[in-house]
Amino acid sequence: MSKAETISMFDAGIIRRAALEALAKLNPVTLARNPVIFVTEIVAALVTVTGIEALLAHRPAGFSITIAVWLWLTVIFATFAEAVAEGRGRARAESLRRARSDTMAKLLVDPRDRAIFKLAPAPDLRCGDMVLVEAGDLIPSDGEVIDGVASVNESAVTGESAPVVREAGGDRSAVTGGTHLVSDWLVVRITADAGATFLDRMIALVEGAERRKTPNEIALNILLAGLTIVFLIAVVTLVGFGQYSGTRFSIPVLAALLVCLIPTTIGGLLSAIGIAGMDRLVRFNVVATSGRAVEAAGDVDALLLDKTGTITFGNRMAAGFYPVLGVNERALAEACVMASLGDDTPEGRSILSFARDRYDISLATPDDAAIIPFSANTRMSGIDTGGKSYRKGAVDSVLAALGVAPDPAFTESIARIARAGSTPLAVTADGKLLGAIELKDIVKPGIKERFAALRAMGIRTIMVTGDNRITAATIAAEAGVDDYIAEANPQNKLDYIRKVQSEGRLVAMCGDGTNDAPALAQADVGVAMQTGTQAAREAGNMVDLDSDPTKLIEIVEIGKQLLITRGALTTFSIANDISKYFAILPAIFITTYPQLGALNIMRLNTPESAILSAVIFNALIIVVLVPLALRGVKFRAIGAAALLKRNLLIYGLGGIIAPFVGIKLIDMILGLFHIFS
Ligand SMILES: Nc1ncnc2c1ncn2[C@@H]1O[C@H](COP(=O)(O)OP(=O)(O)OP(=O)(O)O)[C@@H](O)[C@H]1O
Ligand SMILES: [K+]
Ligand SMILES: [Mg+2]
């Protein structure tokens, strides 16, 4: 999907298809999920029957039938709003479907032997299958790179055509089915069964097939259903009151009154607002797996980010070896190489290539080697071979394992590395400290301004890193986060999120690594980077296809906009209904109580014209507000209280005034054509 590919709000194709679907959505079984519009449909059917009955009995039926037509239109406009919102998602799904292809996969028999493979259709691949992908091939399904480094064009999914590096180990090991290998080769372990790939899920999501009502929507629906029942009782009571005072109400008049009173405007637009919110997110290249996550984003108080790969570019590269007193540089370099021979992370590989370029050392892995792979829990890696053990890792972890205090010179060189924002690793051989490695990383440009924008929205940014305190402090200052947590392991990250949540605050988390996965799952909004690992992408409830952690600003804005739009249109809808009440009531009682004529401030032509005008206004207002529901009310970072006041003024007051103007106008037009006047 391309970012440039914007779908116009009034695309003729979408409108045409939506009009047809609006009719299909009249099916009462599905419509029953929307109580307000469902009641409107029942009432429309009732008035239709009344009209036909009158027609058959040769009684005047014009008024009944006209009211019936407009009540049906009210229902259709509501289903049309939803169909238009869905149609825009479907257009996007079409462009994604084009990316999904049924290629042949090179299925490996033995993942260590790339020479022997058999061809298998991509849809037949299962979780755990090993496939070879070579330059020019389409990646047949989602997976984890277990061998090789290659550049991949992911534009089919992300819209970004600059190739990205995908490699084994590290945090950039996930590949997406339907993307295109530009260079080299990869051995990929398939992680998704057919029909359950990232692309499949994205298609289902943007099509709205997996859309469920969010808790907020359910709560609002209950409120709207409650209001509908209250007004139903009010109208029935009115019948009794009318009988007592000698006024007889016809069914069309009561139906008109009821439909004008119940919150049809918000009832008709509610699901369109929700769908449009998800859609807006997709246009920002973010895929959310639930509407609930989008809403939570609107209320987020704190944002946690990991450092490497999220705040920084994440290419931690070896940039220097610093021996302790009494160890020569070459001996340290050799120990660094030994400790990295079995380390398949980008850090480990960069240490090997640095040693080869700078010191001309390249060693082969000995046969008897026992490899100790890097883990985020131990924060160390290394090798045991020939009776010797080599280790490297986070300085505090290594020193704790050694159980000795380092000399001041070492401490000073570590501090110097850290103050530059680099990551120091301590290196040991047989329990003896030999020196330090400097791993350099770069803060992504422009990130400071973006964090300032988050602060203006009232969101605290907290960097969580497995790195040491000084490096963390340096990067934190450079990136402009509000706070940081250093020397963290996956458990710390999780604990921190739980702590913030227990204070009743909503937490968002951005991350890319497998060690971020528990925290991404725990956070209210977990945004995984598309470049991250498969574990991270599955744990979160959003994936940012651009892998830009500061995208959370847009995500929060879209969430807030969704909540504000729903609030504003609910206010407008209810204010509207109150006004319509005052337009219709005098018309109903005018024959019984001519004194009520004083209430007829709008000077409408006749009671029939007044009632019909109110019903027409009630139907048309839904159509008029569709663009606003889809586009969303503009979000301004002016603080919650000010925003509420502003919206109450615009949508509350506007909602009260609009019907008076609209109904008067419709009444005048009806008068021009001598309809019921
Ligand atoms: N390949 C490696 N071998 C040994 N130690 C490593 C290796 N890679 C990283 N470390 C050390 O382990 C620490 C934790 O690394 P990890 O990638 O888990 O950090 P993190 O928790 O993801 O935080 P962030 O990504 O924000 O830096 C690093 O700061 C570094 O000191
Ligand atoms: K209404
Ligand atoms: Mg990380």
Ligands bound here?
adenosine-5'-triphosphate, potassium ion, magnesium ion
Overall pLDDT level: 88
Q: Estimate the strand proportion.
A: 15-25%
Uncertain segments are: 1-5
Radius of gyration over all CA atoms, rounded: 33 Å
User: DSSP helix count?
Assistant: 23
Report helical residue fraction. Answer: 40-55%
Shape field: elongated
How many domains? 3
Biggest sheet layout: 7 strands, mixed
Helix and strand content put the structural class at alpha+beta
- The strand line-up of the biggest sheet is 10-22-21-20-11-18-19
Q: In whole angstroms, how far apart are the ends?
A: 55 Å
According to DSSP, the number of beta strands is: 22
